[in-house]
Amino acid sequence: MSATMKDIANETGLGLATISSYFNGGNVRPGNREKIEAAIEKLHYEINETARGLKTDRTRTIGVVIPELQNMFAAKVICHMEDILLKHGYAMIVCDCRTDRKREREAVEFLKKRRVDALFNIPVDNEGGHLKSFLKTGRPVVLIDREIKGIACDTVCTDNFRAIADAVRLMAANGHRRLGMITGPQEISAARERLRGFRSACEELGIAEADCVTACGDDTMEGGARAAEEILAGEKHPTGMIISNYSMTVGAIIRLNEMGISIPEDLSVIGFDNINFAKAMNPVLTIVDQPETLIAEAAAELLLKRIEAAGDEAEGARHVVIPARMVEGRSVRKIRGEEK
User: Fold this and answer.
1) What is the pLDDT of residue 50?
2) Residue of 193, 245, 196 lying closest to 222 (CA atoms)
3) Where in the chain is the domain with CATH 1.10.260.40?
4) What predicted TM-score, i.e. pTM, was given to this entire model?
5) Does the 5-47 domain belong in CATH 1.10.260.40?
């Protein structure tokens, strides 16, 4: 027969209220905590999470819906968040929606039926229709990397505008006045902000609009390769290229190698994310690096506070913006005046 909470109370000499408080994450004195944990091990006590969830309306699980598991940014953020949540007694259920709106909606409905305590989402649906039913449950939602207008929930994003604007300034500081940028799909808020940062910085620096060429990829390696070709197909060859997504960075670099274009002699390049990939390049690639650890910490903190405040008067939705950093390699060369 399985051990019960009453058995633990008898073993420790503590009251059932103290035992219950321990299992529900309440404050328990360190000495009492040690007694309870020793009794759990001795009696081989197993928590019935399903029964506890029905009683407390908490399942100690967090739902996560992301566009692609192979997306390196998403994978890193999830790993960091999992470490934080585990320390607070929460497990995660991760759903990969394959960048498909229908699958994303089905994943959110699945997690709602599983009664997860909260939801993290890197959204594919930029209108937020997939979240409305979940939000009606009163359980918190935190969006990562992308905002959705009209959806009242917390968001944590990189400062995408400044990240690309800084990349333009680095190019300009090295004499580049003809620039190309590979952008992501413009229905995604992060991609829109990165393009806005590019155009704003070019205008600020007095770079002619005709010398600021853009091509839209689809956040994939194939999209990056196609966009690189498109930018270089024009008569006016840019001297510098900025790529606004990691997968597109890999695809573009592969295509540039296939085209026999030497970096940075023929074309200076600034990529996005993955320091290890940047270091593996020859020459070492200059990149915009997103702070995945800080993003995960901020998102987890927001979500845990929302869970703890359940039943209290809700604070308004918070939008946290975290700066990216420029990691300089050797893929941007200083050009002479006659080359501009």
Assistant:
1) 47
2) 245
3) 5-47
4) 0.81
5) yes
